[in-house]
Amino acid sequence: MKRICVFAGSNTGIRAEYELMAEALGNELARRGLELVYGGSKIGLMGRIANTVLALDGKALGVMPTGLFRGEMVHTGLTELHEVKDMHERKALMGELSDAFIALPGGYGTLEEVFEVVSWGQLGIHSKPVGLLNVNGYYEPLVQMIKNGVEAGFIPATHEELLICEEDPVVLLNRLQEYKPPAQTNKWSELSEA
């Protein structure tokens, strides 16, 4: 692994632990020599992790749609800033540049991004690991929802392994580096295996 894409809130949230864990993850990325790929903002948890990586002489690559956000949001001190046409192009380039994905706490955008890359993994579009940094139990309801999907027959049981959830950035990165994708199984219960 060379680059990790981190999806994160454009706000910092109401708990100090969210910022502290964004910084802890940034520290660990820089310590391991892993480059950060992210949405290119200088605010929120996105800004915290980028600033941490850069302060430790790490590399931070941002991907931002041209003209979509106010200029004061764009981080101007990045190693690289890729300007793209729209959000679809943004996510595609972030995926292309990255060897693994991690979601810090965030809102609709973060959830949408993590579910898209998990779906791509399920369909065999990529075999890259996807992790959740479960700060203060933030992702426990989501993990339970996935278990509900398995129990209800909407998600194959082996596909539960497509999403790695840990509370510690060191443990999470270790698991991402050791990741072996689950065997491809038929996701469509009404179709034969052939």
UniProtKB/TrEMBL annotation:
<dbReference type="Pfam" id="PF03641">
    <property type="entry name" value="Lysine_decarbox"/>
</dbReference>
<protein>
    <recommendedName>
        <fullName>Cytokinin riboside 5'-monophosphate phosphoribohydrolase</fullName>
        <ecNumber>3.2.2.n1</ecNumber>
    </recommendedName>
</protein>
<dbReference type="InterPro" id="IPR005269">
    <property type="entry name" value="LOG"/>
</dbReference>
<dbReference type="GO" id="GO:0016799">
    <property type="term" value="F:hydrolase activity, hydrolyzing N-glycosyl compounds"/>
</dbReference>
<dbReference type="InterPro" id="IPR031100">
    <property type="entry name" value="LOG_fam"/>
</dbReference>
<keyword id="KW-0378">Hydrolase</keyword>
<keyword id="KW-0203">Cytokinin biosynthesis</keyword>
<comment type="similarity">
    <text>Belongs to the LOG family.</text>
</comment>
<dbReference type="GO" id="GO:0009691">
    <property type="term" value="P:cytokinin biosynthetic process"/>
</dbReference>
<dbReference type="GO" id="GO:0005829">
    <property type="term" value="C:cytosol"/>
</dbReference>
